[in-house]
Design a protein that fits this description.
Elements: H1 2-22, H2 27-45, H3 51-68, H4 70-73, H5 76-111, H6 129-137, E1 148-157, E2 166-175, E3 180-189, E4 192-201, E5 204-211, E6 215-221, H7 223-239, E7 250-256, E8 259-266, E9 269-277, E10 283-288, E11 292-294, E12 299-301, E13 304-305, E14 308-314, E15 317-329, E16 332-346
Antiparallel strand pairs: 1-2, 1-16, 2-3, 3-4, 4-5, 5-6, 7-8, 8-9, 9-10, 10-13, 11-12, 13-15, 14-15, 15-16
Helix pairs in contact: 1-2, 2-3, 3-5
């Protein structure tokens, strides 16, 4: 699709540059339209937020020029209509990003901090020994307490076992004092753009997914989603920000030397998960019975598993960087996600995107 777009826009821009010789009266405007078309292509391939604006202005000027020389230039309307589809898709992405940025910025205004409070051994005494070992293993001890964090993943997701994974990139911001989570993704399914937002805060939880960044596929909200997202927040604490596990809202039950149960309360919900560690102190799996698989219409309560591997150094911490996302359905386990953690930042004072 991108190659077709590049061919179309280069051809279209080249024809506009020829207008300099063919139209003495409006030749300069043909050149302006051609330059704007090339700018649109550059911004599009650079994934710039305002690519849609350059494209929209270019199409408006181009179509006005076509109308002024309709007999000779009318077939350019077809290319403009094709480019308009891309402009609208890009504008849909821009709207989604704007909504996401607004959510994050409003939360950062009240939850931004440069923490000078360091985690000490005294902060760990209420934790099971294997969780204490995990915090030491991840290099969390001696580091600042975590009040918020930002994470970027790449990988793929799918809806059914027979589907191929949709290539995707995700970005999320989490806040710990008043637990909230804002997550967005961009993906392609059979070459068609798909985008989505999860939001979770005191007002509730919402999950929206749109095809071509305009047409709703999933529109989920309500108490079952908020309970499910409370589990996700606990999971994020466990794997992305282990330092957050000192939070007193998490209660612990020791099962054996390498398995514990974590119960996290964020009213009105208390959710739990079994955490599985290696003897070395790596957290390698998280299993919860409190999450729901949803398409926005139905909510099915299946055990949710997130096995994690490939521990690496990221921003001074040793974290698991490969995660599988699974539901244990009655007809067998289904892996719907395969993600890699590629960036993480803690205690952010302003948006980094």
């Amino acid at each position: 699709m991108k190659i077709l777009f590049l061919v179309l826009i280069l051809l279209h821009a080249g024809i506009h540059f020829l207008g300099l010789r063919k139209s003495p009266q409006f030749g300069w405007l043909w050149v302006v339209a051609g330059v704007l078309l090339l700018l649109f292509a550059y911004l599009y391939f650079s994934a710039a937020n305002y690519a849609w604006f350059a494209g929209g202005v270019a199409i408006l000027i181009s179509q006005w020029l076509i109308f002024s020389d309709w007999k000779e230039a009318r077939f350019g309307t077809i290319i403009n209509l094709l480019l308009l589809i891309i402009v609208l898709v890009e504008f849909g992405v821009f709207r989604m990003l704007k909504r996401f940025d607004t959510l994050v910025e409003s939360r950062l205004k009240i939850n931004a901090t440069n923490s000078s409070q360091l985690i000490t051994e005294a902060d760990l005494v209420h934790l099971p020994l294997i969780v204490q070992q995990y915090l030491s293993y991840t290099n969390s001890v001696g580091k600042p307490k975590v009040f918020n964090f930002r994470a970027v993943f790449k990988g793929g997701m799918r809806s059914n076992p027979d589907d191929s994974y949709m290539p995707m990139k995700t970005l999320q911001y989490n806040f710990t004092e008043e637990p909230s989570r804002f997550f967005r993704f961009t993906a392609t399914k059979a070459g068609v753009p798909v985008s989505g937002i999860h939001s979770y805060d005191t007002s509730g939880a919402v999950f929206n997914v749109k095809l071509l960044n305009w047409f709703p596929i999933i529109d989920a909200k309500g108490d079952q989603l908020k309970q499910a997202e409370t589990v996700t927040v606990l999971n994020d604490f466990c794997f992305i920000a282990p330092a957050a596990l000192i939070d007193k809202r998490i209660q612990w039950e020791q099962v054996n030397d390498t398995v514990v149960i974590a119960r996290f309360t964020n009213p009105p919900f208390t959710v739990s998960a079994s955490l599985y560690f290696t003897a070395e102190g790596q957290l390698v799996n998280f299993i919860s019975n409190d999450r729901f698989e949803t398409d926005g219409k139905t909510y099915k309560n299946y055990p949710w598993l997130t096995p994690v591997s490939d521990y690496k150094e990221l921003n001074g911490y040793r974290l698991g960087t490969r995660a599988g996302l699974w539901y244990d359905r009655p007809d067998g386990k289904f892996q719907y996600g395969d993600l890699e953690l590629v960036e993480v930042e803690y205690n952010i004072t302003r948006p980094l995107d």
